[in-house]
# Entry
Amino acid sequence: FDRPAFKNVISHGIVLGSDGQKMSKSLRNYPDVSEVLDRDGSDAMRWFLMSSPILRGGNLIVTEQGIREGVRQVMLPLWNVYHFFALYANAANNGEGYSAKLKYDSQHVMDRFILGKTREMIEQVTAAMDSYDIWNACEYLRQYADALTNWYVRRSRERFFNEDTDAFDTLYTALVTVSKVAASLLPLSSEEIYRGLTGERSVHLTDWPEASAFADESDLLALMQTVREVCSAGSALRKEKKIRVRQPLQQLTVAIAPEQFAALGTAFGEKGAEYFATIVEDELNLREVTLVSADTVDPADYGISQQLKVNARAAGPRLGKQVQVAIKASKSGDWTVTEDGTVLVGVKALDGGLALEEGEYELVTVVDADAEGAEHTAAAVLPGGFLVLNIELTDELVAEGIARDTIRAIQQARKDADLNVADRINLSIAAPEETLAALRANEALVTGETLAVSLQLTEGPELSISVAKA
# Structure
């Protein structure tokens, strides 16, 4: 506590109750500590405090929701991944199980991604801890937990189902390593995960992991981040057009920055563009993805343009009378975005323009209504590129969408019947004729996804599903 850096971090914030006032015993404007510890555990409270704004000189508002947010964002994801690994590793080899081992390299792109992410996480958390920057250490760990559960595990489920030993070893390595790094921030959860994985006495008796044990995958991580940004933008377009995720769409064109397009082969291997496209197809439920370099196409060819909207209420206090000039210039198209992402408005009118700050403007991507196929097009602009989504729904696509919705209901029926993930089933479905027609047209998809060895379809007033172990 004598170190000046640490003193500076903790000397400015104020702890507030859930009503925004200073915490007070008489007002009881904070959650009951005993209830929090009984319900969420001490790790949840510890994480809430260690990752709080007060460690950066901000105010801390103590609420139950804030405490549970740490559980939702970090503790549950890590525990769920551990549970996922244990489930599939123990079920491998017809129930005999698989004993995973530490593995620091792999040829599979997704393994390389998470191992490279693990190296990055060790480096980031180590640097943050060394400088007493506990808030950023927690943030890096949260980002890693997100990448582990929402990207690596979700993208690799089939490999675990097929008992891919490289996947088992890679996930084991990631979990063992993250439990060591998180040990001082989540001491009890890390202890439980580490001991369950290794059988050793305690994670708190192990050495801090060495980042150098993992390969440097910087190029791959940067390109995979672009993949995730494309998928996120595509999902946002689906949501905007109110098209559910299980409804397949025909085609997406993705233009990425030239330097990233050139790095595809280095990062993803010989078939880099194909692998990039395959991930996006799977994530966004698409029939086809066309990947191009942004310097070979013009957004205008697709009828795409951006409009700048100045938020007068946000920009007014800072810009004063010039806010009206900025609004007029934005409407006339007198604005630009610099290479570093700064938005300049009134470039011509004000001899160089005004720089707008975050929150003072909104960039809106629009499709020219007169462009060919505009009614079936949705678009978004990405850093260094853009994407164009074909949202036209043909009868064939609609039928597949119905089949995929039904598959979701069948999987829930399997779960309700307490079936093992590998169990084959006999499947009976009663449904209206429209649904039955869609299931007949996509029978191979339905039986393959649900492990059904037989499928019986009968007409009925509403969807009814019966599953039995084959």
